[in-house]
Amino acid sequence: MIERSKTVMNDLVAAIRNVMLKHEITNEELRFAVKYLKETANTEFELELMMENFFEITTAHVTNNKNSGSASNIAGPFFLEDAPDIGSEGEIKTLEEGEHLPIVIRGQIKDLAGKPISGVKLDVWHSTPRGTYSGVHEGIPSEYYRAKLTTDEMGYYKVRTTKPVPYQIPDNGNTGRLLKSMGRHAWRPAHVHFKARKPGLQEHITQVYFNGEDYVDSDCCEAVIDELVIPFVEENGEQVIIKNFVLDAA
Ligand code: DHB
Ligand code: FE
User: Fold this and answer.
1) How remote is the CA of residue 207 from the centroid of ligand 2, in Å?
2) In whole angstroms, what is the distance from residue 211 CA to residue 82 CA?
3) Residue 228 DSSP code
4) What pLDDT is stored for residue 139 in this prediction?
5) Fewer Cβ close by (within 10 Å): the C or N end of the chain?
């Protein structure tokens, strides 16, 4: 660990110095940056937000570079452990408010050898039709917009829910100001989160995005990976997202 710290931190300092030299950073600008970071750290959740916004996706890329299964993606801050258990097939509790396009998300989970995996615990969570998260934001209890599925004997799962909408990360603080100064907005495209777990397999955290929709090409978290952008297909009059998983061994 000390060796790792030595290697990584020397590289990190060198990388920052290169940027400073390239852009002729002045002492005043360095002091401004320190003040900005200090203010960020002194504001609740702001440093977490900033680091997650800019760097969580990079940890997913590190995982993806080592793995051969499906692409991992950022977890975001809104996973909750105790979502309602609904077996291999069921419904996510939703509210009858706002626009709520019903959708189906279904798929199959396999291992690297192509063998279906039963008994995978698959958490699914996403925003309300207002772009908020249950159990986190005001007025929406945690048993809504989340579920824990378990794949059947052939690795299948299927869940009915409503389509999430784009999500704006808090943009009134230093993270929002930083994004703005970079010429960027604070929106994420509509997305659905997944966490797949079974002993013997790597915990797999990912998301899906919807083909052709707002912000897919300009996610503030830069987390959109082509493989995770999925088109709707119509099956028996329902709008269906098919998300299959190939999971790496632990
Ligand atoms: C944030 C929120 C999300 O729903 C997400 O998927 C990623 C990041 C955030 O607020 O930082
Ligand atoms: Fe999210």
Assistant:
1) 8
2) 30
3) G
4) 87
5) N
Please give the distance, rounded to the nearest whole angstrom, from the Cα atom of residue 77 to the centre of ligand 1: 6
- Give per-residue pLDDT as tens, 121-164: 999 999 998 899 999 998 899 999 999 999 999 999 999 999 99
Look at the pTM and tell me if it is higher than 0.90. Answer: yes
- Between CA 109 and CA 122 the distance in angstroms is 10
Residue nearest to atom 7 of ligand 1 (CA): 76
The confidence score (pLDDT) of residue 96 equals 73
Smallest CA separation from ligand 1 atom 9, residue:
169
Mean per-residue pLDDT of the chain: 96
Sorting pLDDT into bands at 50, 70 and 90, what band is 98?
Answer: low
Query: Which residue from 221, 224, 225, 228 has its CB within 8 A of the most atoms of ligand 1, so it is best to mutate?
Result: 221
Q: How far is the CA of 175 from the centre of ligand 1 (A)?
A: 12
